[in-house]
Write a structure and sequence with these properties.
This protein has 10 helices and 7 strands. With 263 residues, the chain is of the alpha/beta class. α6 links the parallel β5 and β6. It is globular and about 50 Å long.
Length: 263
């Protein structure tokens, strides 16, 4: 963490910064001295966070209200990069719908594809070209433990996270040769507002804090490639992908997720 600003500064962009892991990234980066571009749909929440970060750290914070499913996402990203030396990009935004596949509208499935897959692809391409020309920088794509196996009741969400995992691992090699560090952070259960709402009144699984996910991911960025925050999560990922037959791992995760659907 000590050399983040020197390696990736002076500006960082965080997409999906209004709460949870994205907010934690914004706080951690401001604490390290980065100027910030924060993106989310809820302008009032972003402005409140921006005021707090400016007052606490003295960094510049710019807020951009943007729907990451918008058709003009590429030119919007290009516009943001044009007048700022953005050296670090964090794409955290994601839409997650925990429900049976056929009971979720096709429109909602398609929106998950737009936000969770087309969004990070667009960010990686627009900012990746600039960082490669710059000769250095970093990109963090937020994936999930659901990326490692088919996730029943989270089918489309898990599929988009698998896309991000594959994309990020490939770019870690390609862009790494041009001085750009790419990390795919495959977070497990995290105490975000969405997680807390989903587990309200239930016994939740062991979970990390958003701050811990953000800080571990930032510390691992220079290592490039796939990264699973949290020792327990790393153990579970290894167990479910290497020690158990894939069918059993999928069945175990499906059973766990289905319990969260019960009234």
């Amino acid at each position: 963490m000590a050399h983040l600003l020197e390696r990736y500064g002076p500006w960082a962009l965080v997409a999906g910064a209004s709460e949870g892991i994205g907010e934690a990234f914004a706080r951690a980066l401001a604490g390290e001295g980065f100027h910030l571009v924060l993106i989310a749909r809820r302008a009032a929440v972003l402005e409140s966070l921006a005021r707090e970060l400016r007052d606490a750290t003295g960094v510049q914070v710019e807020c951009v209200r943007l729907d990451l499913a918008a058709s003009d996402l590429a030119p919007r990203f290009d516009e943001l990069a044009r007048d700022r030396d953005i050296g670090l990009v964090v794409y955290n935004a994601a839409l997650s719908i925990r429900a049976p596949f056929l009971e979720t509208s096709l429109e909602d499935h398609q929106r998950m594809l737009e936000v969770n897959a087309r969004g990070p692809l667009t960010a990686a391409h627009v900012f990746g070209r600039r960082l490669a020309a710059r000769g250095g920088g970093g990109i963090i794509l937020l994936s999930s433990l659901t990326a490692f196996w088919g996730s029943a009741w989270l089918a489309t969400y898990g599929a988009t996270k698998a896309f991000n995992l594959s994309l990020g691992e490939a770019l870690a090699h390609e862009l790494g040769e041009r001085g750009v560090d790419v990390l795919v952070s495959c977070a497990g259960a995290t105490t975000t507002p969405g997680f807390n709402r989903a587990t309200a009144g239930r016994r939740p699984p062991a979970a990390m804090t958003p701050d811990a996910v953000a800080r571990e991911s930032l510390a691992a960025l220079a290592n490039r490639g796939a990264f699973v925050p949290g020792r327990l999560n790393r153990f579970l990922q290894q167990l479910l992908t290497r020690a158990l037959p894939r069918e059993i791992a999928i069945r175990m995760m499906a059973s766990h997720t289905k319990r969260l659907l019960a009234p």
